[in-house]
Amino acid sequence: MHELRTTVDIQAPPNQVWTILTDFAAYPEWNPFIREVRGEPIAGRSLNISVFCGPKAQRRNFWPRVLLSEAPRELRWQGRLLMSGLLNGEHRFKLVQRSDGTTRLVHSECFTGMLVPFFRARLEREARPGFEAMNAALKSRAERRR
Fold first, then answer.
1. What does the radius of gyration of the chain's CA atoms come to, in whole angstroms?
2. pLDDT exceeds cutoff 90 at 65
3. Looking at residue 3, what DSSP letter applies?
4. Mean pLDDT, to the nearest integer, of 76-83?
5. Is 53 helix (H, G, I), strand (E, B) or coil?
6. Which of 75, 107, 109, 119 lies 20 to 30 angstroms, CA to CA, from 13?
7. 3-class SS at 68?
8. Could you tell me the pTM of the whole model?
9. 3-state secondary structure string, 102-145?
10. What percent of the chain has pLDDT over 70?
């Protein structure tokens, strides 16, 4: 198992952050990492996700299933590489309301499967910067709307 975990504090309430996070149609306008999502944030539904990461910003497509969509607290989906057990990833956006009414976003992904030891360094090198770039862009978009 390997977990990528990032956090960012956003000067906006969780409802506002949730609205931006789940407005998949608007992702191309602001999201440098997950540039396209087709589908709806509804538990049990499948998504078609295009991620751009790595030194050459290569496009990678995934077809995860939404595990949890609990407004305005948490969105989770799970995908896999080729077949279950090789490289599975559970992507999670957790919105925590802070005492001042603002939001802490915990953006993470837990990777499991036989290929994790071989992909660990690549995930850190390529995916972590994408998570951080998305966090910064989400923060900027939410705080501009305040």
1. 15
2. yes
3. E
4. 84
5. strand
6. 109
7. strand
8. 0.92
9. CEEEEEEEEEECCCHHHHHHHHHHHHHHHHHHHHHHHHHHHHHC
10. 95
- For residues 87 and 62, give the distance between their C-alpha atoms in angstroms, rounded to a whole number: 12
Length, in residues, of the chain:
146
- DSSP-derived letter for residue 46 is B
The CA dihedral of 31, 35, 39, 45, to the nearest 10 degrees, is -80
Per-residue CA distances from 43 to 14, 26, 40, 53, 97 (Å): 20, 20, 9, 26, 22
Q: In this structure, which amino acid lies at residue 139?
A: K
Distance CA 65, CA 46 (A): 4
* CA distance readout (Å), 64 to 39, 136, 138: 10, 24, 21
Q: Are 77 and 24 in contact (CB under 8 A)?
A: no
Tokens standing for residue 50 = 């295009």
Q: Which residue from 86, 83, 91, 74 is spatially nearest to 34, judged by alpha carbons?
A: 91
